[in-house]
Every structure is written in C-alpha cells, then in structure tokens.
C-alpha cells in the first residue's frame, strides 16, 4: 500500500490521514515509521552528544545509476568535506555579493509580467503564476551556477532543461519504490520508460558540460561557482563530485523556491485579509523597486510571517527526509525504535498548531503584535515543528538564500500588482490536494494581476 500510494502521488495525504486516526507515531511500511512530533526533528536529524548521526535512508537517498555521489548522497565521511567547500557559497558575504543578480531577474520578472498583461485579449490580465515563478528561479540558478541563464523570462517559455528537472523527481520516487524490493532494482530499472531515461542522461550531461565550462572561466565573477573554486583544493571536492552537486543545486535551487512561492500566492488569493495586510506592509515601506534590498526585507514582520506560514502549509518537500537508525539502535522521542519525520503531517496536527489547516501568518508574529485573543490562540504553536530546511549536520546550506529569494520576489510582486483570484478551474487549485512525488507536482495556477498605480 505504501508503494502504491507513493506511485500515485498521494503519499503525504495518506500518511497524514493515518496520523490523524492513530496518533503521532505510525508504521507506514514494514520497516518505516513516521513521526508527527516536534521532538523527532532533533532526535533524528540534530546534534545529540553521545549519539551517532542518523544516516540518510538509501532507499531514497542514492545517486541515480551512472552518477557519482553529490553532497546530498555522500556518506558520513565524505559529506563534511564537501559541505565545507560549498558552505562558502552560501555565506552572508556571498549572498550580498550575489544580490545584484537576484535583483536583476526579479526586475525582469516584473517587466515581463507587465508586458504580458498589457496585451489584448479576453483574459489579458490572467497569468499562470507557477510558470513565472519557475522561469525566474531557473534563470537565477542558471546564472549563479553556470553564468548562463536559461532565458526563460526573456522567452516566456521553459528551457528543455526544466523538463529534466521535473522528471528527475518522478524518477527518484520510482527508484525509491523499486528499492523496497531488494534484488529487483536492476531488473525493474530496465522497465522504466526510455524517454525518461534519455531526458535524465541528457540533463546530467548538460550539467557536466556547463560546470566544466564555468570552471574554465575562473573566479572573477561573484556567483556560487566562484566561491566554490576559490575554496576548493586537493582535500576538497573532486570534479565528479562538483558536477553531481551542481546537478542537485540546479534542481533544489530552482524548483523548491518557486514551488513555495506558488503555494503562498495560492493561499493569499483565498485569504483576502492576509493579502491586504501584506499589501499594506510592503506599500507603506517601499515606493519604488529600487527601495527594496535584501537587508531591509529581512526586517518586515508580516512578510516573513507569510513566508513561514507558506513553508508550513505549502512545503516544497512535504514527504520528509527519511533516515535510518544507526547500527546498534537509538532512541526517538523516548522510544528505542527506528523512523523518520513526515513533515507535512507534523505541520498540520493540532498538537503542534492551533487551527492547523488554516493559512494564518499571524501565528508567526510576536505576541505583542497580536490582539489578546489571537495571542492566546497561538501561544502554544510549536514553530520549531516547521523545519523545511532540516536541522543538524545535513541541514540545507541554502536556507538564507531561499528566504532572500522569496522575500525579494514576493515583495516585488505585491509592490507592483494587485493580486486577484480567478474564478476558473485553474484559478481554484487546491494546493494541498496536488500530487507529490517527493516534491509537489504543481498544477497550473492562474491569478489576475492588476498594475498597482502607485509604482
């Protein structure tokens, strides 16, 4: 049943239903447990003195056939070595150096949206915002990794590369299901559609070519690769490890941020009070696009509350990050049993959040900024239950980078446009009901954008 649920894209909802019926710890497969308890984040993923690290579950965290290990699939010996090299590219200084690139593509997004909605037609103000967020994030990551944007924004259409990214998640979900049947992986792999395998190979070969070309260009340009080159040496990362890691970054650095922004926008169109409050905060703080900086965005309480609530309600990686108990066993939430954290279920249980299925950014604000009734309602919310970037030695290096992108893009959209709900099937997408193959498979989602006259 677990494999069937995964292949149908229904796993997160099925597991959440089991948690709702049976409690915080449930068995979802013969040798897998799912936890909907906040403590499990630290017990499974965090640093615990006297405890060994819980290794990533090889069922889900194995490089595809023919690809070397990246920093995400590396073993406990190699991972710290790779992480040390890559960490320089995600430092505060690196983010400041790369801000002009983020600003460039965000302003291009705004410009292209204005052009698109100015054209004649019955629905000229209606856009599929999922596509435009993905255009933006792919162009940014292409520029910062390879000094080559994919020109999605300029062309208003997807580069063939994006098809490879979309299929990568389905392939990985399929391979993970295969690995539940030891000895059959190599046999069943032969039955995968050849078209998917060809896309995967073409995508990875393009990564190799782009990586080698970018490395040959040197370190003058401030981007992710320049920091990696400057801080790598004979004790650092091999060329094959760099290539494989660039593949991971090109996927995670584009899809996940765009997915969360799409989910946030979906929920905002259904919660007009939240959208109006966000509009008021952004438009009272900024008058022009040039006023917006990464530094001052970080200080906007409601914008950050909206993003945090978006990560809770529309996580890009809702199925969690499965781990294995190390050899010899260990305790999780006081019990000597193996397992993993199902983050989607945890973020929507009443034991962790008041009104768990409602989009309410106010739950992330300080009590002093809430009315007494709201402060009381949300007083016991467990904010630490939302860990989309994970915790511990393998926590996501790009957390602050992702927050910066989401703040910048969302604030710029709100400053320049009134966002309105579209009364059509594509405008009524229920974000939480979409299929999930490790990540959310986003459906087209239409919104109506009306230029805000004050800009």
TrEMBL record:
Keywords linked to the UniProt accession: Heme, Iron, Metal-binding, Monooxygenase, Oxidoreductase
Source organism, top-level taxon: Eukaryota
InterPro entries in the record: Cyt_P450, Cyt_P450_CS, Cyt_P450_E_grp-I, Cyt_P450_sf, Cytochrome_P450_monoxygenase
CDD domains given in the database record: CYP60B-like
Statement: the UniProt record of this protein carries the keyword Coiled coil: no
Binding positions (heme): 396
Gene Ontology MF term list: heme binding; iron ion binding; monooxygenase activity; oxidoreductase activity, acting on paired donors, with incorporation or reduction of molecular oxygen
Cofactor: heme
Family, similarity comment: Belongs to the cytochrome P450 family.
Protein known as: Cytochrome P450
Organismal lineage: Eukaryota, Fungi, Dikarya, Ascomycota, Pezizomycotina
